[in-house]
Amino acid sequence: MQRMQFYKSKFNGLVVAMAVAVISAPAFAWPGSGGDVSAGKTKSATCTACHGQNGISVNDNWPNLAGQKENYIVEQLHAFKSGTRTNPIMSGIAKMLNDQDIRDLAAYFSSLKP
Ligand code: HEC
Questions:
Q1: How far is the CA of 80 from the centre of ligand 1 (A)?
Q2: In a structure prediction context, what are the per-residue pLDDT tens digits for the chain, which is 114 residues long?
Q3: Domain parsing of the chain, residue ranges
Q4: What is d(CA 99, CA 17) in angstroms, rounded to the nearest whole number?
Q5: What is the value of pTM for the model shown?
Q6: What is the CATH number of domain 31-111?
Q7: How far is the CA of 63 from the centre of ligand 1 (A)?
Q8: Ligand 1 site: residues with CB under 6 angstroms?
Q9: Whole-angstrom Cα distance, residue 94 to residue 100?
């Protein structure tokens, strides 16, 4: 009986650990876009020259990205890439990004404090 209790509590611990893992996972890629914040941070090195270290742009002509809506960033980068939105700077940059880069960058910039 004592032994059963031991196994049971161990099993409960496993269930709790699994639940925590499932619940906390979306926090890194909310709302489930498949974007990875830390990968996005690494990939943002080329973006920060204009959009700023913390996603706050360094001049008046370039937009802030910090705290911008994740899906909006994804949409805009796809629009630059496909040519439905054009800009001499961003069109060229977006063409070099693949779908995963776009998701990661969007996850990163949207996670920053505006
Ligand atoms: C040389 C400067 C420069 C660099 C580098 C740059 N951007 Fe931009 N970005 C701009 C400018 C300027 C605009 C505004 C374009 C327009 O007016 O349509 C812009 C617009 C955007 C927008 C749309 C913002 C909005 O509010 O609609 C996104 C998203 C964006 N950039 C993401 C990125 C990402 C991600 C990178 C790095 C991979 C990057 N940019 C690199 C200058 C830059």
A1: 9
A2: 556 665 565 555 555 455 444 444 444 444 556 899 999 999 999 999 999 999 999 999 999 999 999 999 999 999 999 999 999 999 999 999 999 999 999 999 999 999
A3: 31-111
A4: 32
A5: 0.80
A6: 1.10.760.10
A7: 7
A8: 46-47, 49-51, 61-63, 65, 73, 76-77, 87, 89-90, 93, 105
A9: 12
